[in-house]
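Appendix B. Raw example, untouched.
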Amino acid sequence: MSLRFEELDWRQTPMGELVLRRRWYPAVGKDVYEIKLNDEYLMSSLFTVAEVELARLALAELADAAGTSLDVAVAGLGLGCTAQAALENPYVSSLVVVDALSEVIEWHEQGLIASGVAADPRCTLVHGDFFALIRSAVALDPAAPDRRFHAILVDVDHSPRHLLHPSHADFYEPAGLLRLRAQLRPGGVFALWSNDRPDEEFMAKLAQVFGEVRAEVVTFDNPLQERAATNTVYLAR
């Protein structure tokens, strides 16, 4: 059994206090890793089902491209669950993961978070503000500025309404979604994780930009509250 609570790293960042910690949860009998930014929980390894489903559902939309080498981008590294799930798809030949916090990238590179993502030769970790890159039409992959992606998976804000920073708001409007669409190949998929139930207003905005739109509710067990919990994955193609 590990220590009941251990702070693995603490950093002061331009976005506030960033903490990586590990705690032993007797109720589940395992160590749980948590990332906090100020008072916000960015991610917990106790709840990763929807983050994995974000990649699985998005890449399943590309089943008609089976056999094709897929180029995928992920916004939001966190504990690496979405990136790891994408790399498990045998057709993914390149993965670019963009994160605004260089400290989180360092944790993966140093092995404080043992996701294996940083060691995968198909994966490039990019320090940058995904929303600013989309807004300015800058390439998500600096090494391949002309690259367009088969899928872009976004897991940064809590939901299209509950944002980590107000500057992200324009991304969830039709103009911002159009800028994202320009980074996709024809037939490409945009997938978004949300902590909230499906938002009909946001769905309508997606439908203004993409031809096919739906929201998948992902249900998982919450052992701390002894009940089922849900997240949402938005899919647009």
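End of appendix B.
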